[in-house]
Amino acid sequence: MLDNKGFDQWAGKYDDDIAKAKGYPFEGYYQVLAYVHSKVEKPQDKKVLDIGIGTGLLTEELYKKGATIYGVDFSPKMIEEASTKMPNGKFYCCDITQGLCSELMEMKFNYIVSSYALHHLTDEEKIEFINRLKELILPGGKIILADVAFEKFIDRENCQKEVGEEWDSDEYYIVAESFIDMLKETGFKSRYTQISICGGVLELWV
């Protein structure tokens, strides 16, 4: 698992590397992002928080459609890349494993989105983090989380067998058949959609 310095070094090549990627962990990456975009209704004038914004690949399209983008990442270089795509965006450098910065915790958003970031948290930490995000959602809002994820444990096991040594055992991937049950304690309603063999999207709303 890369730390922030590793992502700093990757920032300049990240978009090109993702575009060329095939198979685990980025199989179907752009289809996953397109699905998230389709779930953000009428983005103009909406406030959108992107957690783990990276180079801005997820929210750049929403920005172009008039959304106000707030981005969080632990890599200053990634934020620099995102800010060139979204010069009027608002960016914060913080590590989500330590929670969100205090400024963001005082705000409210129509949508909170994330792509390929929450796998740095264990399932228990994800639930705790999601519980905190609940306070930041405006009425009628939604949380949309895209990541390496699987419908069932057997799907994860099959993927791990297929990729062998490429599997990253330091990352924690959502398996919907168990994680949906864990979400019940948060009070959120939820829907999980598998997009590719290793990419899925979890939608949460009250």
What does this entry look like structurally?
The N and C termini lie far apart (33 Å). Helices cover 34% and strands 25% of the residues. Strand 7 and strand 8 (199-205) form a beta hairpin. The radius of gyration is 16 Å and the shape is globular. The chain has 8 helices and 8 strands, in the order αααβαβαββαβαβαββ. The model is unreliable at 6-12 (pLDDT under 50). The longest helix has 11 residues, at 29-39. The protein has one domain: Rossmann fold, CATH 3.40.50. It has helices at residues 4-10, 14-20, 29-39, 60-64, 76-85, 123-133, 153-163, 176-183, and strands at residues 47-51, 68-73, 90-93, 109-115, 137-150, 174-175, 189-194, 199-205. The protein is of the alpha/beta class and 206 residues long. Strands 1, 2, 3, 4, 5, 6, 7 and 8 form an 8-stranded mixed beta sheet that branches.
Q: What is the structure about, briefly put?
A:
The protein is α/β, with parallel strands linked by helices and 206 residues long.
